[in-house]
Write a structure and sequence with these properties.
Largest sheet: 5 strands, mixed
Oligomer: single chain
CATH class of the largest domain: Alpha Beta
Strand content: 15-25%
Helix content: 25-40%
CATH superfamily of the largest domain: DNA ligase/mRNA capping enzyme
Strand order of the largest sheet: 2-13-10-3-9
Number of helices: 22
Length: 661
């Protein structure tokens, strides 16, 4: 194959992978493999001078799958940055000018436009020239204000991202494996490509905007750093940043790289961005392909490979599939010892060429310096074995082939397998539920697969497995001690949070609060466990459908037994029924805003008010008795409205003096 033919082959492969990455559910190659092919393509284009208009080196990426009717031309082209894995290349580009370093977030780029102090448009980046108008999602994306102090024309560009924590939670709630998302970036793209009729789903997915460039303002601000400060001062989430220069660039990159290497980053990033502070200079220069030469440069981490030998495949039962994990001889990557990496599914094992235990050589990297990943395998003529029983419940397994992608995944055939209900365990330990820190989806699945947890009540007895747990990867004496503190705290709870944690169909936190407010703690649970239960339709906002859902749930013997088991373990706040609460806050409505320091957080503050017979509203109105804000002199919209309505503004300390703690 000559060089031109190889260029065309690489373009076809990369564009197909890019389309899957931007618009589909399944990745068809790793970032590592994509970067290797992209670098080869760049080298061949330089050698031959042949540039195909479809080449990813001159395109911003795949088009987003949003309705054509929403497509508009950008006022300012949203060009991408040139990238390099060599700090010296970036130093040469930067010269002796003042620089800024910031995260290269892995999400979906948005462009926000403001006129006369009000948000007028939100657009996706699209192909850099045209994007999709998604202004209808303005109320469902966090991280930017709807109104700003700048009364002129302002355009700001930033990255919409979803944290790893939210990504894992959302994926765990999707029943169909074909509909699960490959990564947070894929989820953001899919979320913001939803129809306007599904706006409520966007809000649930916690999409957050992070400004990284002030594209235009009528104000004269010629420093990138001051522009970021200007945006932050108006209420925008602004990308984390640090001033540097060519002499200190390596030192600054090393410091930021250490943060990523620590594994504590919850926001997905795939590199760093180096930007000139001088915005006038940054706006000069030519456009090469789809890169503006002076707009900035992206630094991409050089993945370090390690060769090792597969010891065995660990089949881990998750919510909807049994996933293979490669366990291999220890290797050192990015300063840590690595022994495990996910293999995703049977199709990926076949693609990589995984073979038998102790007979397969592996090439392993840490993708973006965080996630261990197998990128190559040599099976030496052997084949891997697929288990015929579930590792959790020992029921028979089956291979399911996706109608959409052809992907082969392994599944447990038992509908009652504990691992299939991981989303319920996630809800039970959530902050809205029993608030048990230290039990992520990953940790819960490990404990379930190890046989430590088979129902909610088992979480409270996890201490008996201490000796085994502290030997698990990522655990130790300190982590276990912190977990036990959190478990012990969760032995006492507001009854509404407990009801939410039980995962009764159709009963969320608001419905639970209505039930407790109407009946009180003791009367509600007495009625719930009464075999002659006549239903809960009498409670405003519950209705027949929800009432029937509660009765159906408690009618299941296993649910009734679990409820009794839990009630023997936890202590619930004794809330009196409506009209009988003589608490300190009885009959009063509060709005709580800003940071709190006496209560652990605003949720705890709210729970106290409700336990004392009060009501907490989300916005100030004529029915509000008190606005609680530790910054009484704030010019926030809530303070301003409270003053205009004559609502008394008090601090948290004053609240405690008046209503107790």
């Amino acid at each position: 194959m000559d060089k031109i033919e190889r260029i065309k082959e690489l373009i076809a492969i990369l564009n197909k992978a890019s389309d899957a990455y931007y618009n589909d559910r399944d990745e068809i190659m790793s970032n590592y493999e994509w970067d290797e092919m992209y670098d080869e393509l760049t080298r061949l284009e330089a050698e031959t001078g042949y540039i195909d208009p479809d080449s990813p080196t001159v395109k911003t990426g795949a088009e987003e799958t949003t309705p054509a009717a929403n497509r508009e031309t950008h006022e300012y082209p949203a060009l991408s940055l040139a990238k390099s894995k060599d700090v010296n290349v970036i130093r040469k580009w930067a010269g002796d000018r003042a620089l800024w370093l910031s995260w290269k977030m892995d999400g979906l780029t948005l462009v926000l436009t403001y006129d006369n102090g009000k948000l007028s448009k939100i657009m996706t980046r699209g192909n850099g020239t045209t994007g999709s108008n998604i202004t209808y999602f303005a109320d469902y994306i966090k991280g930017f204000p709807k109104e700003i102090a700048d009364k002129g024309h302002l355009v700001v560009r930033g990255e919409a991202v979803i944290s790893y924590t939210d990504f894992n939670t959302i994926n765990s709630m999707i029943d169909n494996p074909d509909e699960q998302y490959a990564n947070p970036r894929n989820l953001v793209s899919g979320t913001l490509g939803l129809d306007v009729s599904r706006a409520a789903e966007v809000a649930e997915r916690c999409v957050t905007f992070n400004a990284f460039t002030l594209v235009h303002t009528d104000e004269e601000i010629l420093s990138w750093g001051k522009r970021m400060d200007y945006l932050a001062g108006m209420g925008f989430n602004v990308v984390e940043r640090e001033a540097t220069d060519s002499d200190r660039l390596q030192e600054t990159i090393d410091k930021w790289t250490a943060v990523v290497r620590s594994g504590k980053m919850d926001i997905p990033v795939d590199g760093l961005v180096v930007t000139f502070d001088d915005t006038e200079y940054a706006s000069t220069g030519s456009v090469t392909g789809h890169h503006a030469t002076n707009a900035g440069m992206a630094f991409k981490w050089q993945d370090t490979e390690a060769e090792t030998t597969l010891d065995h495949i660990e089949w881990s039962c998750a919510a909807f599939a049994i996933s293979p994990v490669a366990v291999f001889d220890p290797v050192s990557l990015e300063g840590t010892t690595v022994t495990r990496a996910s293999l995703c599914n049977i199709s990926e094992m076949k693609r990589l060429g995984i073979g038998a235990d102790r007979a397969t050589s592996l090439t392993v990297i840490k993708s973006n310096m965080i996630i261990p990943k197998c990128v190559r395998a040599d099976a030496h003529g052997t084949v891997f074995t697929i288990p015929d029983v579930c590792p959790v419940c020992k029921s028979p397994t089956e291979i399911v082939v996706s109608e959409k992608t052809g992907t082969e995944t392994l599944h447990c055939t038992n509908p009652d397998c504990t691992a299939k209900h991981i989303q319920k365990y996630t809800r039970f330990v959530s902050k809205t539920g029993m608030d048990i820190d230290g039990l992520s989806i990953k940790t819960l699945m490990r404990f379930i697969n190890e046989g430590y947890i088979s129902d909610f009540a088992d979480i409270y007895g996890i201490g008996e497995y201490k000796d085994r747990i502290i030997e698990l990867d990522g655990f130790g004496e300190k982590s276990f001690a912190n977990l036990m503190v959190s478990v012990d705290k969760a032995r006492k709870k507001h009854p509404a949070n407990f009801i939410y944690a039980l995962c009764i169909p159709m009963i969320g936190l608001d419905a639970a609060k209505k039930l407790i407010a109407y009946y009180g703690t003791k009367a509600f649970f007495d009625k719930l466990r009464d075999s002659s239960n006549t239903g809960f339709e009498e409670v405003d906002g519950i209705g027949t459908e929800r009432s029937n859902a509660i009765i159906a749930w408690i009618s299941e013997p296993k649910n009734a037994a679990l409820l009794n088991k839990l009630l023997s373990i936890v202590t619930l706040d004794d809330i009196a029924k409506a009209g009988e609460n003589n608490g300190t806050c009885a009959g009063k409505t509060f709005v709580i805003t800003g940071d709190v320091h006496n209560f652990k957080n605003r949720d705890e503050f709210k729970a106290y008010v409700e336990a004392q017979g009060g009501h907490v509203a989300g916005s100030v109105s004529g029915k509000t008795d008190y606005l609680v804000n530790n910054d009484i002199n704030s010019t926030s919209s809530k303070n301003t409205k409270a003053k205009s309505l004559g609502v008394e503004i008090i601090t948290e300390d004053t609240f405690i003096d008046m209503f107790g703690r």
